Q: What sequence folds into this?
């Protein structure tokens, strides 16, 4: 399947590569604040990064969506990861994301989430996208609600009690923020 890159005003999103693993491990998976609300896995930060890369590769190879490394447009540094992959034990496409602590509170999450959702509806032809977040992660559920996700229910996924959100294509407000999706050469 084809892979896509995305651009926003401040970020570039591209499918992850093996040389991203060290930065993902140190900036995301080794940071207890970043991992506070994520599923607890008995693995090293490097193993977590490798698992995320495998999951993204598998998704891109079988579907028209997957995961991305998030890079700062100004300096090319990796600042996070995001993606559209299947929610655990379902056929629903889940939006997931994580950002390095250094970029928290700057609107990057909203910008990236909006781009992922737009890609899902415009380029991947999805009808619905879901997201799950632990109730204590107030910043994350505020981002989801700001983009247009609506509360559906409470549930258990990834062995966590979560709030389950969804958004349908007809409800998504595209807005006027800069966005570009492009097919990448393989």
A:
């Amino acid at each position: 399947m084809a892979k896509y890159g995305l651009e926003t005003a401040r970020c570039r999103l591209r499918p992850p590569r093996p040389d991203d693993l060290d930065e993902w491990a140190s900036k995301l998976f080794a940071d207890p604040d970043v991992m506070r609300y994520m599923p607890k896995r008995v693995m090293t930060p490097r193993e977590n990064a490798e698992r995320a890369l495998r999951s993204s590769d598998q998704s891109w190879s079988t579907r028209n969506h997957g995961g991305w490394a998030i890079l700062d447009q100004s300096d090319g540094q990796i600042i996070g990861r995001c993606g559209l992959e299947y929610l655990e034990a379902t056929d629903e496409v889940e939006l997931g994301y994580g950002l390095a602590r250094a970029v928290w509170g700057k609107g990057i999450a909203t910008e990236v989430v909006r781009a992922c959702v737009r890609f899902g509806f415009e380029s991947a032809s999805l009808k619905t996208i879901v997201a799950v977040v632990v109730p204590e992660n107030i910043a994350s559920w505020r981002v989801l609600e700001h983009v247009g996700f609506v509360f559906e229910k409470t549930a258990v996924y990834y062995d966590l009690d979560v709030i389950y959100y969804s958004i349908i294509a007809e409800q998504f407000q595209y807005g006027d923020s800069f966005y570009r999706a492009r097919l990448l050469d393989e």
